[in-house]
Automatic annotation (TrEMBL):
<dbReference type="InterPro" id="IPR011701">
    <property type="entry name" value="MFS"/>
</dbReference>
<feature type="transmembrane region" description="Helical">
    <location>
        <begin position="263"/>
        <end position="281"/>
    </location>
</feature>
<feature type="transmembrane region" description="Helical">
    <location>
        <begin position="152"/>
        <end position="172"/>
    </location>
</feature>
<feature type="transmembrane region" description="Helical">
    <location>
        <begin position="179"/>
        <end position="202"/>
    </location>
</feature>
<feature type="transmembrane region" description="Helical">
    <location>
        <begin position="53"/>
        <end position="74"/>
    </location>
</feature>
<feature type="transmembrane region" description="Helical">
    <location>
        <begin position="94"/>
        <end position="114"/>
    </location>
</feature>
<feature type="transmembrane region" description="Helical">
    <location>
        <begin position="208"/>
        <end position="230"/>
    </location>
</feature>
<keyword id="KW-0472">Membrane</keyword>
<feature type="domain" description="Major facilitator superfamily (MFS) profile">
    <location>
        <begin position="51"/>
        <end position="460"/>
    </location>
</feature>
<dbReference type="InterPro" id="IPR036259">
    <property type="entry name" value="MFS_trans_sf"/>
</dbReference>
<feature type="transmembrane region" description="Helical">
    <location>
        <begin position="121"/>
        <end position="146"/>
    </location>
</feature>
<feature type="transmembrane region" description="Helical">
    <location>
        <begin position="435"/>
        <end position="455"/>
    </location>
</feature>
<feature type="transmembrane region" description="Helical">
    <location>
        <begin position="358"/>
        <end position="378"/>
    </location>
</feature>
<feature type="transmembrane region" description="Helical">
    <location>
        <begin position="301"/>
        <end position="320"/>
    </location>
</feature>
<dbReference type="GO" id="GO:0005886">
    <property type="term" value="C:plasma membrane"/>
</dbReference>
<dbReference type="InterPro" id="IPR020846">
    <property type="entry name" value="MFS_dom"/>
</dbReference>
<dbReference type="GO" id="GO:0022857">
    <property type="term" value="F:transmembrane transporter activity"/>
</dbReference>
């Protein structure tokens, strides 16, 4: 006979074989009674990938959505900012250059802080910092104060995405992580739609100050919601983060460990080479470029850029699934295909006069948009080649890549415009915009060379870890 006793308050399991002597016979029974005492502590445990995991991820997504709204608000307000502050093209680039430079500069410290303090604290802090930056934008009387506000936005933005990636790693099985990372990026991309339509509408309706103050107030509410609901790890019994041993010094040493992993460097170059073209178009220069080169109306150009978000929603899950099922060759194929298509189509655009056929512009948008999901493959390389305790630092460093290349694009684009005499939006011409956009090619070259050199040792390490 087998008796199973379940104790839902513990996880220790024990089996006790008890031989019961028959009364008066002095020998063991043929079939001894077997008592199976199972101590199963699942009452307080949370299943990875369960409903609570999706709730944690959903709250992290809310924080990331707000971050993308703040990050891309200049895509709707760029021309208004030039007129509001009476700035040159280089000064207009400064709004995003400083924001993305601060973001890139903060990725490594943010990763170290993430390993030390956890995702909940960093997402909430990021929301509050972005709210402060949007408030500075709202009340700034001169351009340099508004640029400083964008820097504060970049500081807060830097804390959010890698923290959401850490939540995914903590709450979901490894096989689901690539897909959920892509879905995070896709859902966060809705922030671009919010900037292009609701925020732009609010900006025209209420004016500069009111629109940015509403954005700031939203950030405070998001930060409060994160603090009240998110737990960093399913093993924690409360929202309090259990800090790792060794303190901040150990976290800093962990960054050195992460840099020695080839997957960390490989991820950096993936992010560096794939993401900056669509970022250039979405964040600042897309609208002026389409108006000057293609001769489109503002409404058509806005709808075109908004369509990229929809395309991204298709690409993200497909690439996430491919990266999860084919981690060795599938990921590299996605990176090379995305960058190759972007280079080919931009080259055709530069060599042919505008306006171009709509079918061609849609192909260009598809190629550029593929760079967003392709950039997230960087996180897959990082996750598969680093220990969990240094994952924050490694992810932060890899995530620096695309923002570093984007800072070069934003500043370089504006400098090249000014060098041609196109110092304000009324002077943006077809020729000036084409020359400025050529700055993409050296960045592609650097990114592809770095990725190719680091790919082989990265794949070797992934194979070794997978056995």
């Amino acid at each position: 006979m087998r008796i199973v006793v379940h104790d839902m308050a513990s996880t220790v399991g024990a089996t006790v074989n008890v031989g019961i002597r028959r009364l008066g016979r002095g020998r063991r029974p043929r079939n001894p009674v077997r008592y199976d005492v199972r101590v199963n502590e699942t009452k307080n445990a949370t299943r990875l990938g369960g409903p609570k995991a999706y709730a944690m991820w959903g709250m992290g997504l809310l924080g990331y959505l707000f971050a993308v709204v703040c990050r891309s608000s200049m895509s709707a307000a760029g021309i208004e900012a030039a007129n509001h502050f009476h700035t040159t093209s280089t000064a207009l680039s400064g709004f995003l250059y400083l924001q993305l430079f601060v973001y890139a500069l903060m990725q490594v410290p943010a990763g170290v802080l993430l390993d030390r303090f956890g995702a909940r604290a960093l997402i909430a802090s990021g929301g509050l910092l972005m709210a402060a930056g949007q408030s500075m934008m709202a009340v700034a009387p001169v351009a340099w104060m508004a640029v400083a506000g964008r820097g504060v936005v970049g500081l807060g933005d830097a804390l959010v995405f890698i923290s959401v990636v850490r939540l995914i790693s903590a709450w979901f099985p490894a096989r689901q992580a690539p897909l959920l990372t892509q879905l995070t990026s896709v859902t966060g991309g809705l922030g671009q739609i919010i900037s292009l339509y609701p925020f732009a509408w609010l900006l025209r309706l209420t004016g500069w100050r009111a629109a940015f103050l509403v954005s700031a107030g939203t950030g405070v509410l998001v930060a409060a919601a994160i603090l009240l609901s998110v737990r960093d790890d399913p093993r924690q019994s409360s929202r309090h983060h259990e800090r790792p041993e060794g303190g901040l010094a150990a976290a800093v040493r962990g960054f050195g460990t992460a840099l020695r992993s080839p997957g960390t460097i490989c991820g950096f170059f993936v992010h560096f080479s794939t993401w900056f073209p669509i970022n250039m178009m979405n964040q600042l220069w897309g609208l002026p470029f389409l108006l000057a080169v293609e001769g489109w109306s503002r409404e058509t150009a806005t709808a075109y850029l908004g369509m990229g978000v929809v395309i991204n929603m298709v690409f993200g899950p497909v690439m996430g699934r491919l990266a999860g099922v084919h981690p060795i060759h599938g990921r590299a194929a996605v990176v090379y295909a995305s960058v190759g298509a972007q280079i080919a189509l931009w080259t055709v655009l530069f060599l042919t006069p505008g306006p171009h056929p709509m079918w061609f512009m849609v192909l260009l948008l598809v190629a550029m948009t593929s760079g967003g999901p392709a950039s997230n493959i960087a996180m897959d390389y990082v996750r598969d080649t680093n220990r969990p305790e240094v994952l924050g630092a490694a992810t932060g460093f890899a995530n620096t890549g695309g923002f570093l290349s984007s800072t070069v694009i934003f500043l370089g684009f504006g400098v090249l415009l000014d060098a041609q005499g196109a110092t304000d939006p009324s002077l943006y011409t077809d020729h000036a915009m084409r020359v400025a956009a050529l700055i993409q090619y050296p960045l592609w070259a650097v990114g592809l060379v770095g990725f190719t050199l680091m790919l082989r040792p990265t794949l070797r390490l992934i194979r070794a870890r997978r056995g």
